[in-house]
Design goal:
The structure is a homotetramer.
Chain A lengths: L1 E5 L2 E5 L6 E3 L4 E3 L8 E3 L2 E3 L3 E3 L8 H9 L3 E5 L11 H9 L5 H8 L6 H13 L5 E4 L1 H14 L3 E5 L6 E3 L8 H7 L4 E6 L2 H9 L4 E4 L9 H5 L5 H18 L6 E5 L5 H9 L4 E4 L1 H4 L9 E2 L15 E2 L6 H6 L11 H11 L5 H4 L4 E3 L6
Parallel strand pairs in A: 7-8, 7-15, 8-9, 9-10, 10-12, 12-13, 13-14, 14-15
Antiparallel strand pairs in A: 1-2, 3-18, 5-6, 16-17
Helix pairs in contact in A: 1-4, 4-5, 7-9, 10-13
């Protein structure tokens, strides 16, 4: 599939979720016979869903709620919750900002320093609810804050940036040595985004338990316009699933989880991410649509408030249902935003699959959207 | 045409009706010399048209009307007509519902139990008009209701679901054994939707007289957004036509009819479905546009009122003409919604073909819509 | 480039003018050094432009005007001008009709019988102005009216229908034997539309001087929605140009002109039609945009008023300039609708070509529209 | 990648910037470690940015400002600044013109003769500010005006037209002999647009220091509609980069700079142009968006006011920031229009590259826009 763009350049065709669809097999099943269980390291989940570490998606409360509903909420430890004692009024203010001013005001709000004591407090709150605890740092802050985080007690440590590589080169400071860091840490680490086979393979070799596939924040991201970078998700997930397979062989049996992070906005997208080989999905906008989401009808990622180069937007989202209804229904709309897990079960049943690992083998067709 | 989506996944390019068009040959004919006759089992029809078992399309009255006009109306035996004595007021109510509330109210209306006596009554009404009688059940209800249906006297028995497979797997109940069921039954069975070569071939081996090709309800369906499943119809019909050819050989001469069900909205789509190898088409939205259609300017499928996971919409449709004019003209609009059969004849004549079986060999080009 | 649509069907990818563009060569020229001359049979023209036989484009007056400007106007001898003594008021009425009613009223207007004396009168009017005289009939009417037409004195006889084949099959009447007809006739015949290599080759073998490439009326046509037929023009012109080349060899030197008829709406489209191998273009909507065009700001083709199966629309068009300015400028808009010939000269000069025959060899790229 | 368009024509698939994106490698860097330095001949620049010779972009003042900010402003020596003593009021008038009248009025304004003394004056003004001086002529005017220009003292001489070839053929006047002209001149010459490998190779052989890649003015151009010519920029840059490589070998080491000119509207486009092999970019609309740009919220190219065949538009542009902020931020919008150089650095850092020459090797994917 190599394409000649011109005399001096070749490229590969890459595919987005909108470019593909899954097709039924010759077998069908009952939705009740389908399992959506997922586990990573020692942690078991009913559903392959992580809540994205974005302030519009995951607060301590929604991390707890998502945990009780069978998923894993990941708190952004560099968000408003670790910068302010009580971010509720700020979240309300963000939801009130006129369109043209939102980025500038968010740049201000997020310039407040992170407070280690708030990191401890927020994680303790989640832990006390009895659910699996997960928090996220950027690679830039990991060195500075990880001891606080570990001491506060996370079960799953997430290192998440637009792009995280195993080989960061810096002339100004000693970069984070991911391999040593992960080796020294007691808790499983999920790290990303990675967008290519090679980048993911190198991340797997650092000892990570899971790799986030993606680049930036999907619906709310403008990296293609700003940076010229774009990672069509269907191809990226399939490439990283290829790295998982090769690393499994190379390592003599270490299975590193592939987590699609970006571009997963509807139940149809969840189906496609898993079909391309993902073990789980990290949801942003899909959960920001909950009536009880902290974003109050808005959604944004960390790129949106970068001090000098914002690469994302605050977008308005519909709020059709509560978090529980978004995951488990019942739905009274039919657009893939509600009853995500019911839709996943129905899709797996209709196409004849009974568990997520099997479902990764489902047949896929290329068919650009908006036809038929 | 296999495409590498990424390291761990390959896919086939699939085509929708909008992606293709037929082209003239070197010969032309008079429209009067063209035959659109179709027969299945012992039943003869002037036109290769089935009315879809959807409450917005087929009532006992429109089944009779379509029969008299040369086609075959299929009544949904799990629709409003077998749940309520007089559904007219409910159909009127559905047509009055505000957009945001239509799914929720339909979920209520369709939770009323099915009455076997109404099944008998509706079918008897159609039979008494002297036209071919056809009724449709889902696989889930077939076991429960088929004896009523057969006793009531259907000429053609339709088993229709989003996806119907010859190998349904269930841990909770004994699934319908299609092969035994069809073998035991005296009436010809049309079964589907099937979307792939293999699924269709297995359905053909059950003894079905016809296979419905498609998945969900075309214009009113949102399965791509909700389930991630999409069956581009041009490819699906051509694949199932391939299964027909191979099964004809394997069975020593049994010809199973291929019926395109979904995505056939205009006369142009009918032409393309037949060109891809269909023997007939099952029309939904195309007939819901009749001024005398039961949907009263709206159209919806059974997926739209699923209790917990609706995967369709109630859509508003234009009503340019009566059922008779929709089929036979004259037309005073030029958008492929009126005089469907006149357009089919003209298309066959212009491209030089004289009957439907020949027309399946017509040359086709790939040319995405909205250009030229 | 054969594509598998599904198991039982293959297709070719076909291209529209919008899918392609021409690219400069290594040479440039002065626009003044470029010739746009075209000749067919004994007739010489400054520009490779025929006015389409459509009532919104060609009246006796505009046929004369176009002739004086260097092109060839073709009068529709089955249009309003041969049905009514004074069609001016009817053209004005059509331009006033509300959108929803235009087709129905045009169906009425065009049901008036054709008057042979008006055929004579209109052609005599054009002849008396001293320009080349061309009139058009459909194949269905040719038998009935050609003697009138020839007696009235046409220089170029055009037989034009949606699709015209050399092998029309009819059980009701003896079809026109094109080969015999053309052989017996003294005047050169241009015949079409033809859309494929084979159909065109057969038309060339009838002795035609030129072949119209296309199917239906471009901008105003809805044949894809109604008949499922679509002829992407770039591919169609290149295929028929291939037939011209092969027939030149087979016939020992007869050069049959290839005239693109349909989809040629802007100066850019003219450039592309010639680049694909056309010798000339037949313009519809491009000339209907003239302030002095008979359509008075509207455009429609004969398909639009078919009695039972209209397959076209009356479309509203901008009127940026007079016929002379549309052809030769100066332009004060920059959208390809004005100064068509100036643009053609500039395009040929910029890409380094000096005459139309050479220009057919220009390099072309595939690049779907709406990008860059 | 050759495609058969039809029997008599083949074409190559060509790609626009919107069709492609760059993807991260396995390495990441700090933005501070990235160099965006560019040099041509003896001139060094901090950033690979030329201001396009268009009146909406480059005035003497903005040429100076851009020079001080590290780039190279190129003054159009056939624009308003060399036709009028004080064009400020005319620029204000253009910004006030109603849409329908802008082309006609610009045709008038630009018919004023060029004054050699104004050429001298404008260049002297730029020189006196201590920045690199560059001015642009069309090939048609070069003979007439170059001595004035050289005497006035330019550091870099730009010859720019829609298409400039090394072999212009004219029957009316002796065309500019580029090779002799450049050989005789003391200053480095940048020449273009060129759109193909062959055209660029021939321009390189004339001794040019740089070649402009493109055809017409990108955002403000309508050459595809008017002339049928279109140069998808990704392919064009890669083709000309191929010519640079081959000419480097053929000439024994002369490195001719490749400058993308057209279609570079956002920071993402800059990234892609460099990724395809460009050494620098010439920016039009991207700089016309500055609050201090001479276009005052409008943008147009020389094609827009062609006397008889305008092939461009005056387009309205947002003005989100000053020239300095457009280049270096901080940005408070996230659409690729502000902090162009910050975005370039971030993109290079994120994908692991440290200088522009290396960055030309970055991996690229084909992924049509508007998906994901």
């Amino acid at each position: 599939m190599e394409i000649e763009l011109g005399r001096a350049k070749r490229a590969r065709r890459a595919f987005a979720f909108d470019d593909i669809a899954v097709v039924p097999s010759r077998r069908t099943r009952n939705p009740e016979d389908v399992s959506t269980a997922w586990s990573i390291d020692a942690y078991q989940f009913d559903i392959p869903v992580l809540g994205a570490p974005m302030d519009s998606v995951t607060s301590p409360e929604t991390a707890i709620a998502l945990g009780k509903l069978g998923g894993l909420g990941v708190l952004d430890l560099e968000g408003l919750w670790t910068r302010y004692d009580d971010p509720a009024s700020l979240l309300a203010e963000i939801a009130e900002l006129p369109c043209g001013e939102s980025i500038a005001r968010m740049q201000e709000l997020y310039s407040e320093p992170i407070k280690p004591e708030l990191v401890r407090e927020r994680l303790a709150q989640i832990r006390s609810a009895g659910v699996t605890v997960a928090g996220s740092l950027t690679p830039q802050r990991t060195q500075e804050l990880y001891e606080t985080v570990v001491a506060a007690g996370v079960d799953v440590f997430v290192i998440r940036g637009t792009t995280v590589s195993a080989e960061h080169v810096s002339s100004v400071s000693e970069p984070l040595n991911l391999k040593k860091f992960i080796y020294d840490l007691d808790v499983p680490v999920i790290v990303g985004g990675a967008a290519t086979y090679t980048a993911a393979l190198h991340l797997m070799r650092t000892g990570a338990a899971g790799v986030l596939v993606g680049f930036g924040g999907g619906a709310a991201s403008t990296t293609r316009a700003t940076l010229g970078i774009h990672v069509p998700m269907a191809t990226a997930v399939a490439d990283v699933a290829g790295a998982r397979r090769d690393y499994l062989d190379e390592s003599g049996g270490r299975y590193v989880h592939v987590i699609a992070d970006g571009g997963v906005g509807t139940s149809g997208d969840i189906v496609k991410a898993l079909a391309m080989g993902a073990d789980a999905v990290m949801l942003g906008v899909a959960l920001a649509r909950a009536t009880d989401a902290p974003g109050r009808g808005f959604h944004w990622g960390p790129e949106a408030h970068h001090a000098t180069l914002p690469r994302g937007k605050r977008i308005r989202v519909d709020q059709p249902a509560s978090l529980e209804e978004i995951l488990y229904g019942p739905a009274s709309v039919a657009d893939g935003t509600t009853n995500l897990i019911g839709a996943l079960r129905k899709s797996m049943a209709t196409t004849g699959y009974s568990d997520l690992k099997e479902f990764q083998r489902i047949e896929v067709v290329v068919s650009p959207y908006a036809t038929d």
